[in-house]
Design a protein that fits this description.
Layout (H helix, E strand, L loop, with lengths): L5 E8 L2 E10 L2 E10 L3 H10 L4 E6 L4 E6 L9 H13 L1 H6 L2 H10 L3 E5 L2 E7 L6 E11 L2 E11 L3 H14 L3 E5 L2 E12 H20 L1
Helix pairs in contact: 1-2
Length: 218
């Protein structure tokens, strides 16, 4: 039976799985526990000392799973704990650090046929949206902060048919909230995606690219 009183957020980082389970209440979601595998008791104790929130932990030797939960069950702990835990794991677990590193994300973007460059500390990646006479591109700007990347997106297309141009503009407005610049036959949309770790970021970019192909070529 599904427990509708709780919500689950799972991060998969290489061979590591970090799961946050929240209790749903009228005033919002609060942390019940965090499950991490594989993780050693040594790393669990180290992690506990790095997080400001008082936590207790247990270790299941058979599965290599560490479980942490708030020492004070009445304390309201929200989604900010996710960033804190992932960031600290990035600092203390070499495999996670490698998986979430800048080199790793650039390599995976290139594997997905993105053109990648760096401008100062910002990773810039571009992918064409060209097919059937249409022209355009999706450009993404990634500004890293340890394990996390702040993501900005620019979409630029050319459509010489005015009716199709208007239809494309309407569909883009429906699907994405951001700043639109109209200079017919050019159409530019810029928006912020927020902050992601590499695996979620790559998945999100794949989804946006396929959505845009449907808008531009559909």
């Amino acid at each position: 039976m599904i427990d509708l009183s709780q919500a689950v957020k799972e991060y998969v980082i290489g061979t590591y799985v970090i799961t946050f389970v929240y209790r749903c209440q009228e005033e919002g979601k609060t942390l019940r526990y965090i499950s991490m595998r594989p993780l050693s008791p040594y790393d669990a104790e180290f992690l506990k000392t790095m997080v400001e929130t008082p936590l207790d932990w247990s270790f299941d030797k058979d599965s290599g799973t560490v479980k942490l939960w708030p020492r004070n069950i009445k304390e309201k702990i929200g989604r900010d704990i996710e960033k804190a835990i992932i960031t600290h794991l990035f600092r203390i677990v070499p495999e996670i650090r490698k998986e979430l590193s800048e080199d790793s994300i650039i390599e995976k973007l290139v594997e997905r046929d993105w053109l990648v460059s760096k401008q100062n500390k910002v990773i810039v990646c571009r992918k064409p949206l060209e097919s059937n006479g249409h022209e355009g591109y999706l450009e993404v700007f990634l500004e890293g902060n340890e394990a996390w990347y702040m993501v900005r997106v620019k979409v630029r297309v050319i459509e010489s048919n005015f009716n199709k141009y208007q239809h494309m503009k309407m569909r883009l407005r429906e699907m994405f909230e951001g700043k639109m610049i109209e200079q017919y036959p050019f159409l530019t949309l810029e928006f912020n995606l927020g902050e992601y770790i590499a695996p979620e970021l790559l998945k999100k970019l794949d989804e946006i690219y396929e959505t845009l192909r449907g808008v531009v070529f559909g």
